[in-house]
Amino acid sequence: MAVRVRFAPSPTGALHIGGIRTALYNYLFARHHGGVFILRIEDTDQSRHVPGAEEYIIEALRWLGLVPDEGQGFGGDNGPYRQSERKAIYQKYAQELVACGKAYYAFDTPEELEAIRQQEVHFAYNYRTREHLRNSLTMSPEEVEALLQEGTPYVIRLRVAPEEEVHIQDLIRGEVVFQSSELDDKVLLKADGMPTYHLANIVDDHLMRITHVIRGEEWLPSTAHHVLLYRAFGWEDTMPQFAHLPLILRPEGQGKLSKRDGARFGIPVFPLSWKGATPEDSFLGFREAGFLPEATLNFLALLGWHPGGDQEVFSLDEMTRLFSLEHISKGGARFDYDKAKWLNQRYIMATDNATLAQYIRPLAEAKGYRTEQSYLEQVAALMKERVSLLPEFVEEGYYLFEPVRAYDEEAIRKRWKPELQPVLEAITDLMPSVQPFDAPTLEMAVKALLQERQVKPGDVLPLLRLALVGTMKGPAVFDTAALLGPAETANRLRSGMAYFLQCTETTAAK
How far is CA 181 from CA 106, 154, 165, 236, in A? Predict the structure, then answer.
């Protein structure tokens, strides 16, 4: 049977980065086996639906290149792929379970159940308690039919038989066994006619011929009910195999990473930024933080999976070729943001300058900087080995777009000597005559002047760097000057010298 997997998020807000990892593992598994990757929107809980969340999910998948073969927004022959549009399907299958005695009508009101919970702290609607409650198992067929005809609200519950063992052979965790006597009678169809996750999930997976369910470990306890539902429908022969992924842990390694941890640690924990109704519900995304999609995928893949060996940087094609569920760990994976930035830096360094220029352009435009393609490509070439995130091209490298804002005074005091002023003035005067004004020609002209004046390059070049960019860090001096051009280079040398003199005079006065 051909592999068919699904990613089935709920549109209840921004999609957490853990959800994207689930999507990635499903995608890699499908591609590795030449199978089908499906996007299904599980929106049966209409009270939690958030406008724009579905579009966010689709945009995030497109940004990362995880394009489904079928699904909401992508077409296919097994739709609708939005569960709220499949209501009649679920009602039909719920009624089938009632008809064969595998489920039953429950007419208990929320108020009645709440009153019982107030008296019994550990109350569960199960094989023990259902015999004393208002449901079709304790009423005559005539009473039930009368209530249905009157339009009395009801839910449909799964009838869980006691003293049975539910065995699950999880592809990551091995055999997991549940005792049915410890399970409650889950609601399958709610009073508003909408299914719960449990019913909709099983019916859709069956009808969409899903072969493997790869999802977070928080769903493992629900799997017992899902297996019981497959049994109830008589679908055991086509039941998918299950694989439950480890948790993503906080950066310090303790506890599950939550959406609030982004604000707490000052890091993105969502693929894209999300603007909520309040600042507390608005979150920074990996894309807006300056991550490349390829680096984001690489980072997420390693949160629980590794094929072995020392390799850390994997293309999507490599991950697809090497991926297997056997290489996913059972234990939680720490969300190491420093590693994410390290990976992003590697991808930035490997990206061609023309592509990087396209990423830099909107960042430069937002600051009112020049945006010509050729100039931005040169900026990319100079800065790509010095940045970890895309915004740093215009933040750390601001001096390639505007005059120096601040100088490293400590470095100036260490490097500046009054006798070097005439040399710097001579270099400044030399600028207009250097032709062509490129790094090799400029370096040759400056070093010839220094040799003529018997001055060591090591005494002067650091001062040139300080004048041009304000710090001892940054791109090579002559490459920077060549990008700035002769006029701007001369202006910065003059401004730099003026500051050097002011700085050293202030120090002497103290």
Answer: 19, 24, 9, 21
